[in-house]
Design a protein that fits this description.
By secondary structure, the protein is of the alpha+beta class. It has three helices and five strands, in the order αβββαββα. It has a single domain, classed as Roll (SH3 type barrels), CATH 2.30.30.100. Helix content is 35%, strand content 36%. This is Sm domain-containing protein.
């Protein structure tokens, strides 16, 4: 991708909802506003999500294992909720970003698929 294509792509993302993952395992979900040369990202209307602490996972696993022994020897999946909070406008430092995902609505996904076919 040349420089102009990269700039056009970044411009097309402005206003889109991004999921930005960081080195400390947090995830930020908000509307992309801008970025800079250091790869810092500004998101608006942002929610911060945190994975459950190890003790919450251990407790959920222990409770499932107790039920599992009585019910069947098959392993079961454990579901533990992430915690979240609204933080509004946020700058995510580029040095801590591990992954960026574009969150598409079903309508946007259909449009993208239609454009690819033509």
């Amino acid at each position: 991708m040349d420089e102009m294509q990269a700039i056009r792509y970044l411009e097309s993302l402005i206003g889109q909802t991004l999921r930005v993952h960081t080195t400390d395992t947090r995830m930020f979900v908000g509307a992309f506003k801008c970025t800079d040369a250091e790869r810092n990202i500004i998101l608006a209307g942002t929610y911060e999500y945190r994975f459950p602490c190890p003790s919450a996972i251990r407790n959920a696993t222990a409770n499932t294992n107790d039920e599992q022994v009585e019910a069947s020897p098959e392993p079961k999946n454990v579901t533990v909720d992430m915690t979240s909070r609204f933080i509004g406008l946020v700058v995510v430092p580029g040095q801590h970003i591990t992954k960026i995902e574009l969150e598409e609505t079903p309508q946007q996904s259909r449009l993208r698929d239609t454009l690819r076919k033509s």
